[in-house]
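Instructor's aside before we start: the two examples that follow are unrelated to each other. I chose them only because their records fit on one page, so don't look for a connection. First example below.
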Amino acid sequence: MADPAVARQGGDMPELPSDFSALPRPALDLDPDRDAIADFYDYADLLTGDEVATLRRLRSYLARDVAPLVDDAWERAEFPMQLVKGFAELDLAGLPYGLAGMGDEPARRVFTGFLHAEIARVDPSVNSFFGIHTGLAMGSIWAGGTEEQRQRWLPAMARMETIGAFGLTEPHGGSDVAGGMETTARRDGDHWVLEGDKRWIGNAPFADVIVIWARDLETNEVRGFVVPGDAEGMTIAKIEGKTALRIVQNADIALRGVRVPDEDRLAGGAGTFADAGGVLRVTRGNASWGATGTQMAAYELALSYARQREQFGRPIAGFQLMQELLVQMLGNVTASLGMASRNAQLLDAGRGSDAHSALAKEFCASRMRETVAWARQLVGGNGVILGNGVARYFADAEALYSFEGTREMNTLIVGKAITGHSAFVR
């Protein structure tokens, strides 16, 4: 495969080395005492001293225990379960709800956003696992549960003794699942009977509890239920053959007469899909941070490679077209950091809307898709080799681009907000 760096500069194709191990193998700079190279405008200055210390503690863990595992785990499409214990020891899962070691108040979203970006910078799949558990599952119980239900489930989930999943998407409903939900809930005395199917449910194969959303046959409202992962009548089948986010364990779920006690129906707040909508507003913002962290990694790996890779007697980092690619990547990362940070600030201030989070997700994910493609282009043929780093981010970006709302759906959410006219079609 031709190296684009060679093709652009002209001249004869150089002779390939006989020892391919001599080719550059760039690595992320995960030095906990330094800010990320990709944070060119120092957005991390928005964090307090204690927040920076926690971020650096996370970075040390990721460098020591996560980074060495992810290529092999990605290739085998398996989740390294030992990471659960490591994340539990970091005491981060309860931060958004005031259930962690930094005090009783919920952590600022700009801080938890940086945590998501840092995890995604090492591996987007691991960040997805963490986000599903802490954002979608815990967030649903926090937003939709009673105080008794919060106390029953969230402390153990914050300690990561109980792992959660979130069952919303269905085989026939992704973007329009709220309006066209086929999974049903029928009241039967002091129990509910769930019937239906869910798809793409991350963490489900090993989750202890799954928040299942179903349509109440009597009221037509969509309600949330906390269902044990081993509930009778629920079948969980891992989705195989993925080409992106392979470490994430996604599953198809079949619900056939699953009986859930009424005490396990989320009954705080509205107790309906309105609660899920509030959760998705936050997790969509988190997705913008995950997309930003992914492109930070792609940029840093491409920069490292360009400094090491020599053609025509000098590093390709000195070639004009390589510098152009790097600068475009850095511009995308910097703009994404700015939008994700400001959206987090608006959410913290109670001023963030669905449209704010939708625009952040659409923009950051679109810029991520460009950035990882440019990184793969710069690395040339070596960019499709898993061990050279860029390939995993290039593949995973395709899933990140689509989940937490596709580009098209997020665009229409923002379009409705700015024009006052809905372009959604039913």
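Example two begins here.
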Amino acid sequence: MSYEPLSSDFYSYGSLLTAREQEALAALRAWLERDVQPIVNDHWERAEFPMEVVKPLADLGVLSFAWDETAPFENSAVFRGFVALELARVDPSVGTFVGVQNGLATGSIAVAGSEEQRREWIPKLASGEVVGAFGLTEPLSGSDSARGLQTTARREGDAWVLNGAKRWIGNATFSDITIIWAKDEADGQVKGFIVPTSTPGYAATKIEGKISLRIVQNADITLTDVRVPESLRLQNANSFRDTAAVLRQTRAEVAWAAVGTAIGAYEAAVRYATERVQFGKPIGAHQLVQDLLVKCIGNITASLGMVVRVSEMQDRGELRDEHSSLAKTYATERMRETVGWAREVCGGNGIVLDYDVARFFADAEALYSYEGTREMNTLIVGRAITGHAAFA
């Protein structure tokens, strides 16, 4: 299948991909536009996840590209970023499902698991046989997870007993396993655990009433004397530094998803501008509308250049926390501006699902906040610039 650069990729960054990567990206785009785009507004309105997308995502390799155990071909972080972009361009919720499944759940095992754990779990997650979730955020601990984590882990012989609560956990209403991060009562260090959701004492309740990423099934989790064997403790997760190593990789992909979300809104606005006629001509022929669209493509192009460079650094082993944090905070700020301008192009029609812009406009708010708020990412970059930590 031939790859055609997106019109919204104004400087043709997709040309950096290999022919094999472009072919895989073209297949993903074709499936998304054929099978996902027609159903997402209905699922968004009903706040339901389309479970039928999981197997095709696995068959297309989307859940396996990043990992040595399952990668169908050698690929780059830039390619994987474009995968995140293509997913979010059609639907940020489906993109978020993949980010949780592939980046956070599988990524935790890949970064902090033993070789045995990698061999056992990564192929199951990559095939979609097992759905994963990532339990870090808590009701009273979000940005301060490094110090404020309240979920506890207590060693009892060959098992660990977990107690606490988690909030905003994506995929958690239907996941088979959840990676739970908890503070060891013995040494005060954060450790990770692969927790089967069928374990007694584990309960997940769907969070209702969301206005953003409604397709994503976020849950409140309670852990009441949940016992997991030592074999399910992530063997290389011994402090929050190891948790941060997972987030460093996934935060860059959230920046890519922000670019994809901005592109989705922009492309919908361009379609609308060429079809909607006012004052005897398409509104795209009016100067003020063109001004809004040019500001959108400027934001997209600047953000895309940044995330491409971040992924190149990741491929070279040069990526640091502040690099991912700058990309995440910049790309999500520009995304927020862009979806607002795209909605403005559509006028009153920009607040109904019929024209797609409304969904991107709403979903952008969640991407703006998750995987590190603007303020927290700013402080990470500020510390790197000045050498002084300004965290509260």
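Strands lie at 132-135, 152-156, 159-169, 177-184, 190-196, 202-206, 219-229, 277-278, 281-282.
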